[in-house]
Amino acid sequence: MEHKAIRGIRWTLLGHGASRAGSLATTFVLARLLVPGDFGIVAFGSLLIGGILLFGSLGLASAVVIRQDLDRTQLRTALTLMIAAYLTCATVIVAASPLAGDLLGEARADDVLRGLTVPVLFGGLTWFYSAVMQRELQFSRAFACMAGQVITIAGTSIPLAASGFGVWSLVIGQISGAVVYTGLLLSLAPYRVRPGFDRATARSLCRSGWGFMLQGGVSFVEQNADYAVIGTKFGSQQLGLYSMAYRIGEIPNNLIVEPVAQATFPGFARMRERAEEVEVAFLTTLRLTAAGAFPLGLIAAGAADPLVESLLGPKWTGTIGLLQILGLWGSLRIVQATIGWFVNSMGCSSHVGRSYAGLLVASIPLLILAADSEGAKGVAWVMVGNIIAMTAIVGRIAHRHLHVPALQQWKAVKPSVLAALPAWLAAWGAAAALAEAPSALALLVSLTSGVAAYAGTLRLLDPQLPTEARLQLRRVGWPGSAAA
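Below the sequence we write its predicted structure tokens.
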């Protein structure tokens, strides 16, 4: 992989890490000021908007990144298509807003949905210039944009929540963050593009984006059907509790996998364009990403009780049991997402999309049955089964179509997976032993125990991995990694 992409990992890790950490800290503060139902309404509105956008945006942003052959003239057509697509989506969302209130049983939901639609109006510009930055490997500029967005959301939503604005503090925070983010993208873009249109280019872009749209849309429905089932069956309160557990379970993916993928996705695409060998680079990425991220979800699951009590407070107690399940989901997602980004960058998005569509047909009835019999916890267990199936799908595609042996994929993640089990046990044991202690102390000891157990076991299973990780950190220019 070219040097610019490798060095870009530092900026994507910093950018996404700071962004997600800031967003998470803001969420924890807001959780103290608001009630679970407020988060449930916004989660349900975001679900409806996200579903419409994934199918309505035509997969064009990913096509802009992966199509390295596009020149500036052709990018003008991409910009026009994206602006038109997002304006159309905004119109559909506003028209469908009364449906949100009916499905959730909340009179406020339709107004909230209309408020959340505001960023969609200029979403074409947002996603076009975000894709351009990723395409041109301008990761330090993307870092600045994300930092501005997070600071704006926190600086807007927290004071509003403290002043009694309730759910609207979340909505206004999202709008203000989107405005600042788009403004920074436009001001820091490596180049500007004027709208234009060429019919042949439009057809070509739509063909390139079709696989991403199919996969993204089906994956979105499959991964968010749990929100829809819980929201419609149990209301905003239960959805708020579930969505908080889901957010925490997503932390490893958001902090590590997504930022690494922002650099490796265009990097692998460029290697493919030049017909270069990618297997070694992919397996190295999979091995190191799993080493850094896989145990985090399981450690959070083991420490769920003190984590929820100390960070969220007593009104979120219903999140504990859900996090104990969705923490496992979060760890498994590390492997699925890393392999999924790779196969997409190599042009296999349509294969993934079709396979996920088949899984979706089976999973939705299971979600409904699980909700009826076991409630939200049953839904969470179905999500664990789904992520296992999705991991098998992308692993098989990498094996069959890209000739990366399944055994090599397993060897890349095996040490991390096996070492994560004692990490979970140590975190859970510490939390149970300190059940009567102050929650902050119990959380600190639980997390420390889990990390220590993981590090010790991993060193026994794979003594070379720490040295390899330091060498790779040196390649990306990570501070403090100069000494091996």
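The CA atoms of residues 370 and 484 lie 50 Å apart.
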